[in-house]
Design goal:
The structure is a homodimer.
Chain A lengths: L9 H16 L7 E2 L1 H8 L3 H9 L5 E2 L3 E3 H11 L6 E6 L3 H7 L9 E8 L8 E2 L2 E5 L3 H7 L4 E4 L3 H14 L3 E4 L12 E4 L2 H15 L2
Parallel strand pairs in A: 4-5, 4-8, 5-7, 8-9, 9-10
Antiparallel strand pairs in A: 1-3, 2-3, 6-7
The structure holds a DNA duplex.
Chain lengths: 212, 212
DNA sequence: ATTAGAAAGTTATTTTTTTAACAAAGTATT
DNA sequence: AATACTTTGTTAAAAAAATAACTTTCTAAT
């Protein structure tokens, strides 16, 4: 891989999954090449921007043909590190935590769901698919023993910060945060905030613009 | 409200919920004012950027004091249109749809959850909290009768596009999309994509940067 | 073989966004 | 009342990002 992949601008990182998503839809169409112009049509980004983004990582295109869809998907997978195996746990087995257990996107992106944790004795010991709900008491040891990289956090707000600290202490390098709290984490820890109510805010804001 | 709120740059809209979130945490602290410098500390944005963002909407600050936390929250609510009532339905009562029913963020942002819809006969008629799961057959009429503004979409990928089209046809003005599909919608329709696997992509991408 | 066309990759330009600097206004202190 | 201090709101400068334009390379058709 190109050495430039060491410090990819965030603005480009945000677009990579979008390219990936659209290309996947085309995987088994007749034509095996796609031009930047066509991809622009699909994604809403300009063709110029797309060529520039991709050329940041290497020369994946073929002059007068475009990009081989299969190869480009392959390259994007590598850039996004899907081939690098990552262990995941879910902390908090409430409605959202349970929904996350059933998410189908892990394997394709190199994630292995290793465990689910909760404090509620009524939940501990139950199975969601083939994943057992364990007590949060076991969480830290589990993180160390199973070399967990990422923890999805779906606990109540009140315990979010404390739980995050325990997880970091135990060795996770990233937190996929679903609580509606502004977590404070050291800057060597990756924090991906998935605060769904922010989506509601944005929608509300935009609706409002049309009425004022 | 300031007339400039008619076309707020997206980049600012994205930061508003973040200011809001951090200010809410401070609501009942002793000091009732906060400086842009302090808010910068909390949010990670520069104080300069914060002052500029806020001044886009009006003069909310007080020289040598800072911003009144309560008033600023109030102003942000107005800018984001939380005072404007919006009707919401959830389409798809699977794990994620059910988790969304239990989300606590609606009221505060001006949303009223009016209904949940699914195709599965085993689910239809059941209650989640006090919300009845209805058949998707009834969906379009319901949207018209109840003047639904926003639909949260948590249906399987295969029916995502078709369902979106039905909803738009019936009159929703925004879709809060949780499917992992690249939906195509007319450009007068608001589309807020909440594709959780994009979060996984970003985390994976960033982990990968440290290992190459 | 030559020529026209297509589309990537690159460079230059423009636009947007962020940061830095500063002036204005208010506060507190002597 | 005068002075020093804060912190906003604004203006200027810098940096980043996006677009447009251009060059190169490859393909295909005559």
């Amino acid at each position: 891989m190109d050495k430039r992949s060491e410090n990819i601008p965030n603005i480009i990182i945000r677009r990579l999954p979008i390219y990936y998503k659209h290309l996947k839809k085309l995987k088994n169409r007749a034509k095996e090449y796609i031009s930047s112009e066509e991809l622009a049509e699909l994604t809403g980004f300009s063709s110029s921007l797309i060529r520039k983004d991709l050329s940041y990582f290497g020369n994946f295109g073929r002059k007068s043909y475009g990009y081989d869809i299969y190869c480009l998907l392959q390259e994007l997978s590598i850039i996004m590190g899907f081939n690098h195996p990552k262990n995941l746990i879910i902390v908090g087995a409430g409605h959202l935590g349970q929904a996350l257990v059933h998410n189908k996107g892990y394997e394709e992106r190199g994630y292995k769901l290793k465990g689910v944790f909760d404090k509620n004795p009524k939940l501990i010991g139950l199975f969601l698919d083939d994943i057992k709900i364990r007590s949060v008491e076991e969480m830290c040891d589990f993180v160390k023993e199973e070399k967990i990289d990422i923890a999805a956090l779906t606990v109540p707000k009140g315990v979010a910060q404390k739980t995050a600290e325990l997880l970091i202490e135990a060795g996770v390098i990233g937190i996929w945060d679903f609580t509606e709290v502004a977590l404070k984490v050291p800057n060597n820890i990756l924090l991906e905030e998935q605060h769904i109510n922010e989506g509601l805010c944005k929608l509300s804001c935009k609706i409002n613009q049309n009425f004022n």
